[in-house]
Amino acid sequence: MERGQKVLALSIMFLALSILVGCYWISRSIENGIVSNSNSIVKASQNITDYMRRVNISQDDILSQAQAANYLQISEDRLFKVIDAIPHVRIGGQNLFTKKALSEWVEKSNFSSDAN
């Protein structure tokens, strides 16, 4: 084998080894990130559950956006228009409300269900 062919063969082997090591390193980084994110989600869920126990909120008192609109007897579109004025939390892309917060908001505001 000529010197040039040996260098080419070694270069190809080095490139293949670099790709394997890089893939392993990337997969470990992704795996650690996923584990870290899932631990954060579990911890957030536990914090929400603990908070609900402390303030005496049952699961039945938590409403989705559709349930909140139904509770207020308005459309979801109408609810979305005034959502910034209503106490709620956004978890995982979903707006959640409590019946108590909705009732207090209705009492304090001059909200009208037939308003545009």
Give the gist of this structure.
This protein has helices at residues 3-54, 65-72, 76-82, 99-108; strands at residues 62-63, 89-91, 94-98. The protein is mainly alpha-helical.
Number of strands: 3
Report the structural category: mainly alpha
User: What is the CATH topology assignment of the largest domain?
Assistant: Arc Repressor Mutant, subunit A
What's the number of helices?
A: 4
User: What composes the largest sheet?
Assistant: 3 strands, antiparallel
Based on CA atoms alone, the radius of gyration comes out at 27 Å
Low-confidence stretches: none
Beta-strand residue fraction = 5-15%
Strand order of the largest sheet: 1-3-2
Q: Could you name the key traits of this structure?
A:
116 residues, mainly alpha, 3 strands, 66% helix
Q: What can you see in these coordinates?
A:
This protein has 116 residues and is mainly alpha-helical. It has two domains: 56 residues; 59 residues, Arc Repressor Mutant, subunit A (Orthogonal Bundle), CATH 1.10.10. It is 66% helix and 9% strand. A three-stranded antiparallel beta sheet has the order 1-3-2. Strand 2 and strand 3 form a beta hairpin. The longest helix is centred in the N-terminal third of the chain and has 52 residues. The radius of gyration is 27 Å and the shape is elongated. The termini are far apart.
Q: What's the topology here?
A:
Elements lengths: L2 H52 L7 E2 L1 H8 L3 H7 L6 E3 L2 E5 H10 L8
Antiparallel strand pairs: 1-3, 2-3
